[in-house]
Amino acid sequence: MHHKQKKKGSIATRLRSYIQAFFFGLIALIAVNHSLAEKGEGIPFLSNASLHALCPFGGVVTIYQYATTGNFIQKVHESSFVLMVIAFLTAILFGPAFCGWICPLGTVQEWFSKIGKKLFKKRYNNMMPARLDRVLRYLRYLVLAWVLTMTAVSGQLIFADYDPYFALFNFWSSEVAVGGLIVLAVTLLLSLVIERPWCKYACPYGAVLGISNLFRIFKIKREPSTCINCSLCSKQCPMNIEVENKTSIRDHQCISCLECTSEASCPVADTVSLKAGR
Predict the structure, then answer these.
(1) Quick one: the chain helix, strand, coil %, rounded to 5?
(2) What stretch of H or E contains 82?
(3) Contact call for residues 251 and 261 (beta carbons, < 8 A)
């Protein structure tokens, strides 16, 4: 039986696209407005906060200093701490939904992936040797350890000099370090051959949220009794998770995008879905 590769126009897919576009536009407007506000030309109805105040990972890197001194690391705002708590609570419920639905850098990588898919067809996202890919998947935990250690030791926001997210929304500003621009350029270029390369191999915040897949309340589950082994769920997963071989997705790389579910890709109703409990 022939099945379509993807259910175009599915509610889950469209809703995620709209939410991604909304948050990308919002962050872009706030970033531009911050630059304008510094010149006394800000947009009245928008916050003139910097991206440091809107980044939940800022809350993570300042935990040590806040716990030991009661102060935030320079450039990190209280709002980042609040956003971190919200993201963590959401992750306990739904896993790394921030990565799959909100993160603007993840969204841009997906937009670049559409170009890559047209260029490389079926080879897209399948060029990395499997053995190397499995090793590189844990690189982001080393990045996380480095960022937390260096930040705790120096008391400075070390990661800002290499952060592609900050570079993406400040590439016109003198605040951006060359290192951040280089990492952003490499990320976007790799996105033409690998889906979400930064998310898979280097994102320290993705590493933190990825752990929630082990204990999240609402999990993505596959019902073996109704599965027809068409492999569409695995093919549509941007993180290359073999959904077809699992009954419950607990992989630390899952971003809760729901692209594998019956609402988006699986041709059999209620076979791959988001459910609570065991």
Answers:
(1) 55, 5, 40
(2) helix 78-94
(3) no
Task: Give the phi and the psi of residue 272 in degrees, each rounded to 5.
Answer: -120, 115
> Residue 145: which residues within 8 A CB-CB, separation 6 or more?
none
Q: What is the pLDDT of residues 86-140, one digit of tens each?
A: 889 999 999 999 999 999 999 999 999 999 999 999 899 989 998 999 999 999 9
What tens digit of pLDDT does each residue of 175-226 get?
889 999 999 999 999 999 999 999 999 999 999 999 999 999 999 999 999 9
221 found inside a domain? no
For residues 226 and 175, what is the distance between their CA atoms, to the nearest angstrom? 54
CA angle 110, 113, 116 (to 5 degrees): 175
The pTM for the full model equals 0.87
Find out whether 264 and 239 touch, Cβ atoms under 8 Å.
Answer: no
User: Tokens 């407007």 belong to which residue?
Assistant: 29
Strands 218-222 and 272-276, how do they pair? antiparallel
Helix (H/G/I), strand (E/B), else coil: 222: strand
108 lies in some domain: yes
267 domain residue, yes or no: no
Which residues are 276's β-sheet partners?
218
Degrees to nearest 5, angle at CA 117 with 112 and 120: 120
- The three-class DSSP label of residue 272 is strand
Q: Facing residues of 274 across strands?
A: 220
φ/ψ (deg, to 5) at 208: -65, -50
Residue 256 belongs to a domain: no
How many domains is the chain built from?
1
Q: Which of 271, 270, 248, 268 is nearest to 3 (CA)?
A: 268
What is the CB neighbour count within 10 angstroms for residue 52? 20
- Taking the alpha carbons at both ends of the chain, their separation in whole angstroms is 31
Q: Which residues span the domain enclosing 59?
A: 11-213
